[in-house]
Amino acid sequence: MKLLVGIWFVLSAEMGGKDITAAFANERMEITDTGYKIWSGNIVTDIGLLSFNEGAGELDIVGTEGPNIGKTFKGIYKMEGDNVVICYSLANRPDKFETNAENNWVLIKWTRKQ
Fold it and tell me: CA quadruple 77, 28, 6, 48: dihedral positive or negative?
């Protein structure tokens, strides 16, 4: 998880096979040793915990404040240079980095703040 500590900005996002990048235009994510915060402009919109299974490239996202409080998202992640790609779902853990109308997964590519 140390590799992911820092501030991240959305490069691209899709859900259910559709581009939703515009919905994340002002979003940034701050990852710490214990969790994450999502910011929209200067307002914190979501706070939660992250747990990683680094060997398997898996993560669990647990909302503790904001609209996702009490929800657990199952996901997978991979590093691509200075970017991280995360694919997650509220239902089953994704097994690949793609979305379509049937799976309704969320796929976001984040880039680290330089």
Answer: negative
